[in-house]
Amino acid sequence: MKRFLVQFILFVSPLLVISLGAFFSYPHLVSAVSTATVVATIKIEVCGDGVKDDSEECDGSDLNGQTCTNFSGFTGGTLSCSAGCLFAITACTSGGTSPGGGGGGGGGGGIPPTEPVITSAVFVGRAYPGSLVTLLKDGQIAIRTVAGPDANFQMTLAGLSAGNYIFSLYTTDNIGRQSSALTFPVFVTSGATTRVSGIFLAPTIAADKSEVKRGDTLSIFGQSLPQSEITVQVNSTQEFFAKARADKDGVYLYNLDTAFLEIGDHSARSKSTVANEISAYSDRIAFKVGTKSVNEAVDTTYKKADLNRDGSINLVDFSVAAYWYKRKSPPAKYDLNNDGKIDLVDFSIMAYYWTG
Amino acid sequence: MKNDNVKFKINKLRSAVLVFVVAFLFVAPVSAASLYFNSPKTDYKVGEQFTASVLVDSVDEAINAFEGKLVFSDDQLEVKEIFIGNSVINFWIDTPKVGNGEIQFSGIVPGGFQGDKGLLFSAVFLVNSIGTGEINFSDYKLLLNDGRGTAALTVVANLKLNILPVAPGTVAPEYMPFPDGTLPEEFTPELTRSSGEFNNQWFLVFATQDKGSGIDYYEVCEGNQDNCEKTDSPYILKDQNLVGKIFVKAVDKRGNGRMVVLEPPGGLVWYEKYQNYVILFLVLVASVLLVLKKYARRV
């Protein structure tokens, strides 16, 4: 019995140590997060909800503890907050007279002018230098803008109703490749400006070959934020990560030595990091390691999802597919997964490639 | 013999521990999407009406296509209204409709929905008879936003109800209808045709949202507003010469309608162009002047 116990302890103890170690190294299972972790987040703030957020000077009656006397030249009066969540000093006074002054009585400020209340949303983020950024509201193009040379962009969408929206943003790089869309739900508050900041669009990604001879180099490239660090994730039997640096135009290139990869199918995707902020992942590109090299093939699924071949995947394509939904003998060109019918899977593929 | 037994036990224990550890180390936690109801309570009285909202949680993975059915006893529960306003679904393939104790639905979210408490739709039920009741999910499918339409692992929580008789001398609580005074959102119908679709005929596509009660129906009128029909997108135009205006109206569940007028590329019919009236007037004036001039010469 003693021998059994000794054997049991000797055998189980190391396993327990390994188990506990594994448990605490599993990111899904632990609540503590390393301080060095970078996370892809967007920030949603509401101007008009009466609570001052980071990007606001004030919000409604929340003046962040400020009064008129905190502003130079004013000794009294009433500080207020504009509809844009900026301080309004129109009712502040200096030396007992209103700033607009002039003669005659009144003094002591007055009622600040009422600004029209609008329900709107502002989107602030980063794409690529000079890239065209598209914002979809509930799946339809709402607004487009061009990012600045520093890749920053800002868009305002006014005239919204209060309620839940699904917003999507994507951009196109210097040679017209489309980034993966960043999609998120937002509740828009009535009579307030909802500010969505911290948007960091994913890099584009492409490879120079669809099949590469084992041992040859596969070039993986795309565009992102200038000078950002690009992490290329290669999905093979053994997944690995490689680093590259985007140049001043945001263009990056990583030459993958395929000598270490097994013969077969692989895929890669990339993300971008700058100053502890991280983008979403790009789309995946698939490639094969084999015995010959084949130049990059065009993604035919994307083209196929564009049912009417107008260069966009949008409501028109959806409507055409909806017409054939569950009908007998649909045209083969509308059957995106080639299973002989138009069903939910075809719509899911279309929704993935959606451009609005 | 005793030693053999101990050895056997040790080996068995070793195997069990090994299986446990391997399972613990190498089986990654599986996240699932969930479909469930949000209903104010589960105990109702006959004659009472209640709203059950269908919600989705998918925190780890984006879902871009949904389909399924709600199944219930239509002797026990009667659907009074269905609301799709504020839904995370942007485009409905099957707008939720009731029939034979079922509400069938399907739709997509371009780019996918990732988050919790995403509203699909709400249904208002009237309770007709006592007993235990259920509203169950059936034939449901949630697909990942991965470009391949991979089915997401989905768990559902059905709604269990306990329906009680109305106590003598009391009445069931009154249902307060959902108010909505706002119009559907602005939209731009697209007039298009392509050699590959509908025999190259002109067709209209349209869709909008209503953040209140939700879109009830669309109406298309060709030529004038007396010639309308309720329809869905796509709508193949009857007048393929595109003569006359096209009116597209989106109406929500509370009757608030937004109308969009399209000036067709084929031009308006002659009586819709004000220029024609001006020309007619000028011709008339010129004719009268000529007649007067001739008459004056004779005199």
Automatic annotation (TrEMBL), chain A:
One of its GO terms (molecular function) is hydrolase activity, hydrolyzing O-glycosyl compounds. InterPro entries: Dockerin_1_rpt, Dockerin_dom, Dockerin_dom_sf, EF_Hand_1_Ca_BS, Ig-like_fold. Coiled coil: none annotated. It comes from Candidatus Magasanikbacteria bacterium RIFOXYD2_FULL_41_14. GO terms for biological process: polysaccharide catabolic process. It comes from the Bacteria. Residues 300-356 form the Dockerin domain. This is Dockerin domain-containing protein. Pfam families: Dockerin_1. The lineage of its organism: Bacteria, Candidatus Magasanikiibacteriota.
From TrEMBL, chain B:
SUPFAM superfamilies: Carbohydrate-binding domain (SSF49384). The chain crosses the membrane at residues 274-292. The keyword Chloroplast does not apply. GO terms for molecular function: carbohydrate binding. It comes from the Bacteria. Residues 1-32 form the signal peptide. Keywords: Membrane, Signal, Transmembrane, Transmembrane helix. The keyword Signal applies. This is Cohesin domain-containing protein. It comes from Candidatus Magasanikbacteria bacterium RIFOXYD2_FULL_41_14. The lineage of its organism: Bacteria, Candidatus Magasanikiibacteriota.
